[in-house]
Amino acid sequence: MFAQQTAMGKGQRAVQAFRSTEFIEKPRDQEGLVLGGNPFKDAPSTSASLLSKKSTVLSEKSASPAVVPTVSKEVIEAGLKDEPSELESVPTFILVTTYLSFLMLILFAHARDFVGKLVNPEQYVQLREQNGYAPMVSDFESLWTRRLYGRIRDCFNRPITGVAGGRVNLLERVSHDFNTTFEFTGRIRNVLNLASYNYLGFAQSHGPCADKVEEAMREHGITQASSRVEAGRSKLLVETEDMVARFMGTESALIVSMGYATNALNIPSLVSKGCLIISDELNHSSL
Hints:
Blueprint (H helix, E strand, L loop, with lengths): L1 H5 L3 H10 L27 H17 L9 H10 L9 H28 L23 H10 L7 E2 L5 E8 L8 E10 L15 H13 L14 H14 L10 H12 L17
Antiparallel strand pairs: 1-2, 2-3
Helix pairs in contact: 5-6
């Protein structure tokens, strides 16, 4: 049993342990969906009743020596401890030199500000009080933007032309004053797009995604992206939520397009003080 559990991932072990309990163990089809119309009509309505029901189940199992749980708590904890970390360990030398490099950059930046205010005070007017008004930002708050980020900002915020797909048309630019200003060379480079959420090509006007969108709009209308309160509720969404609910073995499910919106907006409106939330460790980090 232990070898079998350590071969699983953390999320798989959590699902296995979740489904092995008395509360979730129900007959399922080949796709993992719970069989039957409403297998959880007797599900606990509150966290307190869930915990009391779970304690009763465990007491009944402990009284019967012939019944052995599918996955024990000790096995899960042992598997989690022995599983190697997914993060690569950084050598101490790399850590020390990296922090020292940042420290040197910050010290030199402060030194340049100190000397610059004495030699060229007109270049620091925006950082001083003017006509009785305090500056918008202090020299310390803008230190990163002016002295550190400014040196490398030619690597970021690069302008493109056309639709951002798998590849983009990059407008080439150069700077002759240490990235204070830029000027375009007139050349356009077609480069690989690694800086966009459009990795599936949703913004492109051609390709399989655009074809499927056009087909769905003709069949289901143009309200799919609107709020459910307005006209966003559709047959496809209801069917998908029903399938998720059957797969998870719950009475119902709610699908939200964004993980952050789910955790930050919907969960607080569904639960209150005293509620129990069971969350997998692979859920969105905003939780």
